[in-house]
Every structure is written in C-alpha cells, then in structure tokens.
Amino acid sequence: MFPCRRYRSPLLWLSSLSVLLWLLTAGHVWGEPTTASAEQRTLFIQFDPTTRTLQGELRQPLSTSSRFRLLEGLTLTSAQRGDEELTIIQDTDGHWQLPTVTNAADNTTPITLRWEGTLPDASSNSRLQVATDGSLLPSRAGWYPDLSDSAMPLGLTVSVLNGQLAVATGSLIEEQRTRDHYVAHFYHPHTRDVEIATGPWQLREREVDGVTLRTLFPEALDTAFGETYLQHATKQLALFQARLGPLPYKSFSIAASPAPIGLAFPGFTLLGERVIPLPFIPSTSLPHELMHAWWGAGVNVDYSSGNWAEALTTYLADYALAEQRDNADAMRHRWLADLAALPNSQEIALQDFRGAPDPAGRLIGYQHGAMLFHMLRQRIGDEAFDNGLRHLAGEWMHRTADWPALIDAFSLASGESQQAFLTAWLTRPGRPTLHVESIQTEAHDEGYRISGTLIQRGQHAPWPMEIPVVVNTEEGPVNVRQAMHDTHQSFELHLTARPLSLEVDPAADLLRHPGPTPAILRQLMLDPTTQVLALDETLLPLARQVLGRDAEALATPVNVQDETQPPLLVIGTTEALNEWRHGNPLPAPPQPIANAGEARFWMAPGTRIGLLSGDNAAAITQLAASLRHHGQQSYVVRGQSADTSQAGRWPADASALRVTFTASDFK
After folding, report:
1. How far apart are CA 425 and CA 465, in angstroms?
2. What CA–CA distance (Å, rounded) separates 483 from 486?
C-alpha cells in the first residue's frame, strides 16, 4: 500500500473483489457477459486537481508489454504478480521495466501496480488539462501505466474531493458520496483506452429508454442551459436508438470543459464552456457528439486504413436532423459548393483522411464522405442502408473496423456487392463534373422521345454513379435514374406527355462539382497560397483571424488582372480600400457594398480576390473575428449595431445541366 497521505480516501482502496461485485450485478450491453472476467483490467484512481496529486492502482493480466512510462512527477511504488513482490527498474530514458516472464503460468497471473505523485501542469504537457475548473486525463498520456497491447474489459473507479464530479470511459455503474469524496465506478466491456474528466459540476440526469442521460455543467451554465441540453439529448437519443439500436453505453454524459474543445469519448462528450451557450450547439454539435457513441467511440476506427467515422457521423446526425427540418436539399447544395472551393492541391482520397483538423481535410472527411453515404443510401434504398448500419453496429461494436468492414456490412444488407462502387469513391481524389450534351427530341404516335449523352470530366473520371434525371412534362415530373460507369453514357427517354424541361441531378444527390459557383470566402481560407495585402500594416494581424493561419504579406503594387496569381485578401479602411480599388479595377459586385454598414467583406465576382474594409480599425477587427463563421458567403456586412446586417452569395450562372424545351422542339 502507499504511504499514508492526508488526501487519501479509505473508500478508494476497496478491494478488487468489491468492484467486481458491482460489475457482477450490472447488466452490460452488446452481448457482454455479466460475470467478471480474469482477463479484466481494474483501475483505481484518486485525483485532486487542486494540488494535481494522483494515486493509482492497476490490476490486470500481464500482456506482452512489460515496459511503460509515467509522467515526470509520478513514481511507481510497488508491483506484484499475485502475492509475489516484483523488482522494478527505471530505464535511463525514464521508462519503467517489469521483470521478464519466464514461467508460462505467470502470463495468466494478474499483476498489481501502484503509483503516486504530482501531475505536471499544462505548460509541460499539452495533452493534459489539470485545473480546478476542469481537468482531462486523456488515454495513454502517461498518467497511468499503459500495459494494454490489446483491448479488454475495464473496471474503473475514480475518486475526487467533494466539490468535484468525474466522468470516465464506459458506462456509469454506480456513484457514491462520502463525507469528503465523490466516487464513481465505470465499466467498459472491451477497450484499450482510459479517459477521465473532472470539474466543479452540477449534475442533472434523466432516464431515457434504458440510458441515463447526464449534464455536468458549472452552476451558471447548468442553470441557464442544463435542461435545454437534456431535452435535446432526449429527443436525439430516441431518434438515434430507433434507427441504430441501443446506445452502446448505459449512460451518456455531456460535460463542460474550460478548454475550447468538442470531443467524444466512450460514454461522454466534452464541450467547451464558451460554445455551450451558443444557440445552435444543442441541435448541431450535441447530436454529432452523441452519434459518435456509436461510430468512433463505439465501433472503433482503424485509422491506418482511413477514418470513416466522421463521414458516417455527419450523415447520420447533422444531415439526418436537416432532413427532419426539411433542409436536406440546401445542406447538400452547400456541401458541394464548399467542396468546389477546394484547390486541387488540397484534394485527397477519402481513404487518406485520418482526422486532421485542417479545414481542407475536414471537408473531405466530413462533407465529401457524408455525400458518399448519401449516394450509397440512394443506391441500395433506405431499408437496406439502415440494415447495414445495424449490422455494422452489431458485428463491430467495441471492436476496430476499417472501410472493408463497412463495405461488407452494406453488401450483406443490400444483397449485392458494393465493393466496386465504394472502392472507386474511396481511392480516387476529387469529384467529377457532369455535362449533358447532344440532346435530340422527337414526337411520335405514342408520345415523345428525348435522347442525349451524359459526360463525366475530371482527372480521375469515370466514377460509378446513378444519375438522377428529372423531366418536367405538361402532366408533371418524371424521375429516372441512369447508371453510368464510363466517361460517356447515352440515354433515351420515352414520355407520354410533352416535356417542358430536363435537368440532371437537380437536388444535388451526387458527389460532384456543382458547376458554375459564385466566389466565396472559403476559397481564400482553403488555399494555402492565399496572399494578404494590408493597406495599413497595423491591420495585417487580422488576416490570421480571417484565414485561420498565417499568410504571405504583399506590398503594392498588385496586378489584379493576372488570373494566374494566388488568391488575395486586401484589408484596409473604407477610404483606403476604395482608393485602392480605383487604381485596381475589379468586377463590380451585383449590389452596392463598398460603403455598406460599418464594416464589410466581399469577394470580387468571378475572381479569387476578397476585400475587407471598415470605417475604423475597431469595426474591421470585429468583423474579421466573425468571418470564420461565414466561409460559404460571398459578402458579409456588419451594421452599426455590431450585428451582421447582410450576408449572402452572389448569383450563380445558370446550370448547364438544365435544358428547356418549347413546342417547336417536338414538331
């Protein structure tokens, strides 16, 4: 046992048998046994964020790994195999080394490790967050001995001083309060990872279809938003469970963090305290993180073969909720416009997305991937698609799945192989541009005939697609789907009523370049070659706020007529920028904007040049800080009241995928 310390809680150091008895009586999910296993990892943690002190005890079978590290400030105090005391040494590089197992029988004998000490502050370890207003101990960060080279059941007990609450990996089994401590017991049926978060939280909870939903917010946030988050989570959980089956945890906690994060872990999510009050978060970020309980924190991701979880989560949370709000068409059009802003140098294959936070990677991993799942659902139908989801969850829950596992699940559900279709979209970067050409029309005794050729263009064309074609006739619309596997595909349609128009993919159901698109701010944000011209050098730092990164600063003059030049952001006061524009003619915007409001941003139509100006430096600064939320816009105006008074996109050219007919076309 550890030397006695003032902050030790006698309750924490309950015997392993006591915790196992809790687990014996707790029903587990996804077919896990309800009896404790000898192949289980049992972890006891006592943590005081005020002093950053931590004591721990780990009991588990000794795996092939016998070498581990502990953070500076933590010391291993004892090691046992069964009742045998083990000699432990510390390498010159700071790693701890257990003695080599020579007797095969020792492989099945659990070891017990105990350690204690003071955790480093955040300045020396950026992965850790240790503070009284909120802490996060992430997995495999050196605060516990990581001896797990494979997943196994985890029984986890966390004790913190009263005034703090804790949430951790897995399902909450039981929680207790003593005179001095809060103690919580968690269980996960199959995991390598261990995460713990703590904070000075208020607890709200609600039972929903066998799941305990919890909010863990500081008092002010709890009073203002706790019930709102519970209500939204209740509705979202009911919808998600009806579609996917049971949540893979008996509890789900929504906890606040002082850090500006939004992270999903098995059984809980951490949301930044500054974003929790934003009115759209309960209906956007919250359902996304809840859906991760199935994909990413439930079915684990084989990152070496690509991160599929963000795409599937985006489609089943963000997009599914847009469908309920009858806003799905607009979301698909918006996604395609965002993807069209990607420069060729930023395009990667979907299977190469690992989860990096850069904006270009997120567009591929989230929106591009979600559109692929949308095309798959259109291809195999709603019932087969949802059956594939349930099969994936049932077969792979708490295991690590790769893209081939998803292909197998949807192939089984649809009754035919989806290998060729999905592999093409996973391995080829970019998206095709569609064209319709060689349209011919004819009237005959039985009705009308339209024929033509669909064409795919793009560096990696052709992609396998099923092209929606809608013909509006005098008697209403006629919908057909044309399979396409080559760069050119002829089609022929026979109709009984006279056609008025034909349009290819009018609802943006296909993962494709949308054709002519207006210039938008995101083009500057995504292109790593974007340059900045600050007409007043004191305004140059604002470029980082707009672009999200540093950019090359230019000096005048600039040749704005050279279309080969990189994208350009020009920043200045209203007077200075208007003067600059007189000497650098640019296409006029469709509406007067150069002097609108107190500050304004706009893209010069048909160019990759963005203009940011304001009546004074303060107005420009305020607008620059908000522009990261307006990447899809061609213009944004900030009014006198410091609110966004105007925002929108310049009109796009007419779609080349729409053909209009007159009566004379069928003579």
Report:
1. 10
2. 10
